[in-house]
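Recall the central idea of this unit: under ordinary conditions, the amino acid sequence of a chain determines the structure it adopts. In this exercise we apply that idea directly, starting from the sequence alone.
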Amino acid sequence: MIESLLARSRPVGGYVIIILVVMIVATTLLINQWFFPARVWLPLADLTAFIISGTLQAGWISIIILVGFVIFFLGRLRPCEVGLEWSRVGVGLVYTLAIWLGLHAVLLIWTHLAGALLVFAADPLPLTSAFLGQIAGNALAEEIVYRGFLLVQCFFLLRGKFSAKKWQWAAAAILLCTAIFAFSHIPNRLMKDSYDSAGAVLQDQFGLFVGGTVFCLAYLRSQNLFFVVGIHALGNRPSALFAAPNEALPIGLVVYLLATVLLLFWPKLPLVKQTTDKSESALAFMHDPEA
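Accordingly, the structure predicted from this sequence is:
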């Protein structure tokens, strides 16, 4: 699995990774300390009935700066080298939809067992807007940066140090990538006074470490960045059309459990093998166009 990711990318200079980390912090502060408070996002959101929400706009600010400038321009990588293989979009979206439908099945069963009435969302538009802001904005930006680029670069960086023991190499790369993912959230949290104690910092960092590790493993298993974007988006905004009775069911956890089930059977799922074969053929052509 690791070799497949490495074969589809190239290592970049260490300075690119350092610049990326600095720009992640700077961009996050720009968005959360100016873009949202100054309501710069509001005119376009109003014009599009909030379909192009502030979250969606902020995600694309991150994509332009972090992906477009740092990864593509400074790192000189191509979209396919950070997981943006368009042949995999369909499969990613199909199985994101499968998780969303599975979530509703779980909610129906839970509601029936609780003997409660279904409580539907009064207006599906905010749900649609919130989910779109994640899958085409925030979650998309974070998955390209942290999993599509940074995880693979961590593998390149550490493979020589643990070449004899692949599991140590993989674990160290995942931990390094996830540590950067978690720690890069701290400056913005501090600026927003999100922490009121050392315990709050530890709890927040633990959640980020767990989530980041799950996304890394999901990318390794599926080799499909778009599916990981879907998991991330649903985890942040499940967008269920009705709620569990008394909000007793942790919907985000259900999303991750359903994703885990799909990942266990991933190679045998419909459409996955065909997509993988096409991707490997494209990869072979990219490395040897005369073949």
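The radius of gyration is 20 Å.
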